[in-house]
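Dear colleagues,

As part of the handover before I leave the project, I'm documenting each prediction I ran so the next person doesn't have to rerun anything. This entry is a single chain, and its sequence is reproduced below.
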Amino acid sequence: MKAFRPDALDLRIVEIMEKDCSLGYREVAEKLGKNIWNVRDRIIHLKDRGIIKKCKADVNYSEMGLKCRALLSFNLPAENIDPFISFTKSENMFKRLIITTGQRRFHLEAVAEDCNDIRLYAMRKFPDFKVYDVEFEVVLDNPL
């Protein structure tokens, strides 16, 4: 497959979709001052290329009674990575898993009614995956 290089229009479409992925083709075209069919074709192409993968809601969990948002940073043995990822995908409490370089490589965002619920759940389930070097942080603000 030929290497894809997004042009200025593709980049603007991605920028608009990042801010509000619920917009329809017409709304994106109006924001860009472009033809709806051209914009539709570009969005379909960006999706086919895997550049735009999915649309996610920006949820205010505290309005749902989930007052605690926490970030758990930790490490785990290589052989437990895939089972742990499957586990986190199956649990509604966990919203995002990020793997980075550094001292603690795994960062898991969790939400619950109370921070102690997250802490106790992690203490009960994490040993199954030999999770170690855990740091628990409460998220106070998410400005972006």
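Residues 36-48 form the longest helix (13 residues). The domain at 61-138 is CATH 3.30.70.920 (Alpha-Beta Plaits).

All the best with the project,
I.
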